[in-house]
Amino acid sequence: MAAIKQKTKQKGFELVSDNWIEKSNVLNEVRNNRMTISQIRLFSIYLSKINPRDVETREVTFKLDEYAKVMQFKQVNTTRLVKTAEDLLGLTVKYFDKTGEYSSDGLVGFVMCQIFKRFKLYKNEDDGEWYVSIDCHDDVLRLMFDLQKYYFTYELWNALQLTSPNQQRMYEILKQYEKVGERIVTIRDLRDWLGIEPKEYPRWDNFKTRVLDASQEALARYTDIKFTWEVTGKRGKGGKINALKFTIEKNYDYERQYTIDDYLIEQKTDYEDEPEEFVRPHGEDGIDTTAYEQQYIERIKYFMEACDGEFTFTEVVELDKKLSDIIEPAGWSDEDYCYHHLEERYQYMTQQSDMRKIPNRLDYMKTITEQTVMPYIERIEFLMESCKHEFTFSEVVMLNDKMRTAMSYAEFSDQITCYHYLNNRYKYMDLQSKRRDIPHRYKYLLSILGAEI
Question: In this predicted model, what pLDDT tens digit does every residue of 364-416 receive, in sequence order?
């Protein structure tokens, strides 16, 4: 094994480029809830800053600016920090007790617990800087510290360029077995370890393209390992693939060792005259703002996050004015309600932009802010169920548009009728696929809408 730089208690708060991560096999194979890529990076950096042989290093401190960049904040404000703290403290892990085998009464023991127990934002009186400290939960100490055997190591830079949770977790799952050179994994375990929900990628071709192929390309390009895979073991009913064999090799052809310094430099975080906000709010003329004014500033910054930071402060003020025109006062005063109202419409606009060009996104957002789009989103999600979630949201939008031309207005307006109409043709396609090969199922289903079956 390559020599690992021993970590002592945190010296200062700066992140360093050559950090190593030591991770127990048990922690690597926990069933965790869906972490965002930013949360996974933060967890990796957290592990790189502790000394797994000294439990006193469990509390890790970041400079606020570094923390904001790791979490990829577009704007930094108290509201955003509170929300991300709540999200972090809500993260849980699940691991099986002993062998994880089912007992004679059909039960299997497991432990579920939080990862972090405390998030603290504070100003250091010695240097006047703001810091974030994070402490892990007592119940996960045994997973992170006192590593004797059954653990693996990797350098932090491998975790910094991967762009999705699937890629990051795939790297760790395979890195654990790098010395062995191969790993056989059931599809069920792989989906659990990656945190993939049961309704995500139900079709094999989607899982292969979006998870296996995408991870294979990313790891070969950005990390110190690469892999190939093949189907192994007995297949299930209908030829269902149950397990994969991964062959893991050292990779010498990655693009570069992307350091934490590179990562932090490339992240752009807008403080909008921060971190003065955390000291004392001031207006443009230098006079202290009123509590109401500061509260409204926080409100708008919160809503900017609902739009993924795409629109400026002034533009989101315009959207908020639209909300005040269409939502009764009690609803408008509920910031979470308004946040979700904007977030739903922003997501709808994003889905629409996948299918057609939207020249002025702000104007479009203003228009749909005044409209009820959720029934439409719910309609598409309802129709996705009629196709057993085989097709994406955008694909079912196209199916819905095709049904509009194939059905009468009264039929198309009835969601139940549309559900059965699409479901009957989906079943017909399944029947035909047993008799002959249908290489492009979506195109085939699209073609038979409007046809008598």
Answer: 888 877 765 446 677 788 898 899 889 887 788 889 888 877 887 667 767 78
Kindly tell me if the per-residue pLDDT of 102 is higher than 70: no
Structural domains of the chain, ranges and CATH numbers in brackets: 1-160+257-276 (1.10.10.10), 162-254 (1.10.10.10), 293-369 (no CATH), 374-448 (no CATH)
Angle at 156 between CA 155 and CA 161, to 5 degrees: 120
What is the distance between the alpha carbons of residues 391 and 385, in angstroms, rounded to a whole number? 9
Cis check: omega of the bond before 275, within 30 degrees of 0: yes
Paired with 270 in beta bridges are 75
3-state helix, strand, coil in the chain (%, to 5): 50, 15, 35
Helix (H) / strand (E) containing 263: helix 260-266
Mean of the per-residue pLDDT values for the chain?
80
The confidence score (pLDDT) of residue 283 equals 41
For 89, the token pair is 């403290």
Give the β-pairing of 110-114 and 225-232: unpaired
| Distance in angstroms (rounded) separating the CA atoms of residues 222 and 258 | 8
